Structure formats: C-alpha cells, structure tokens
C-alpha cells in the first residue's frame, strides 16, 4: 500500500485488480461500526482517492457479516449536549456526502449485511450499489431520537420515490437486499456468494473504460444531487440540533437496554 493511504488506520485497503482500489470497513468485532476517528477518515479519504493517479475505480465493502452498523454509541454519547462536538460532526457529515459526490472515480459498494449510519452514506451514494441478499439497509435516526440526516434527504426520494422514502425513513424499518433492488434503492441485488465477484467485475470494467467519458458522465449525473444541496444541508442541521435535545438520550438508553423508547409526547415545531 502506498503512503497515500497509510494514515487511514481505521480502514483496510487493497488492490484486487489493476487500477481498482478496495476500501474495507474493518471493525468486525463491532459489525464495522463507525467511531469518531473512523468517521473522520471515511470523510477525508475521498479527496485522496480523487487525486490518486493510479486508481480508476473503487470498491467499498465490510469485513465479516456486516457492511457497517453506523455510528457507535460512544461517539453518539460524546456528541449529546456537546455543542463543539456537534459542530465538528456536522461539518464532517456534510463533507462526507459532498466528498463522495465530487470524487471523480466511480464507486461500487458491495453491501454485505447490515448497513446504517455513516457506512450507509457510502453504500447508497456509490455510483453502483450492489446488495447481497443478506443486506439489511436501515436509516434509524428517528428511532435514535434525531432527524434523518446523513444521506437520507439528498438521495432516498430520488432513488425510490417520496412515498417509499417517507415510509422507511419515518418508521426506521429495515430494507432487505431484494426489497432495496425492487424499489430502486440499490442498483442490484445478487446472491451473497457472488457479491464480491460481481463488484469486482463491474469495477474492473469501469477501470478499463474511457476514463474521461465515465468521469464526466458521473459528474453530470451527480448534479441531481448537487441541486438538492439545500435540502441535504437542512436535514443534517436538524439532525445535529437533535443531539442537543433530550430524545437522543432516551434513544441511546433504550438501545442499550433493548427496550422500546419512551420519547416526549409533543414538540413545538
């Protein structure tokens, strides 16, 4: 591995084919949950990938039985009621999405198992998203007591329509790989035993194609996402506002205690 990625100690990198970089979430003991350091690294790495002259395509996947379980409770608890931590995370959350959108290399996600939170940002924003049948895609923000921020508002309605987006984002119900394929939330669903092979084949094809035409097509299509920037910025701001309230404390406690949450019954807005 070149020195370009040496600082990204929370992520695993390899080259499964010429000019194809594979980035792997590598905390299998926590289902590849994202702590504060991992969140920073998964935000910053796309700028280095964008500038890497030796890479034409990127695969993102997770070690073990999960793609990524999202932010860990330690990170969430550190943010709760902490204005400075919330502001730092808000900036990173915005940068993560825009860095992926602006990365000139095509990104292929191989979603193997649960995908949530910051991990799901990468999985669902990928230019080609491939879910295994064991995939379990869930945006659980309201269940945690904060608004659905991260990537939800910028892309779920565009992929699967407003009706499905509202249903899954408001109820926090999980979407299987097959259902995600059916409603258009991912590019395709394949058998789990061919997930990595399929991702590698697509990445290899893209890496060997006309780079100018592939990158310029990605850039043009991603203007659909760029024009939704104000919607996205509002969603992340409201998510972060939630970390300054009481509901998120109950959300985390109920998760830890494995019980239904008891949120306040009203809200002035």
UniProtKB/TrEMBL annotation:
GO MF terms held by the record: isomerase activity
Keywords assigned by UniProt, alphabetized: Isomerase
Family to which the UniProt record says this protein belongs: Belongs to the enoyl-CoA hydratase/isomerase family.
PANTHER family: ENOYL-COA HYDRATASE, ENOYL-COA HYDRATASE ECHA15 (ENOYL HYDRASE) (UNSATURATED ACYL-COA HYDRATASE) (CROTONASE)-RELATED
Protein's recorded name: Enoyl-CoA hydratase/isomerase family protein
Provenance organism: Sneathiella chungangensis
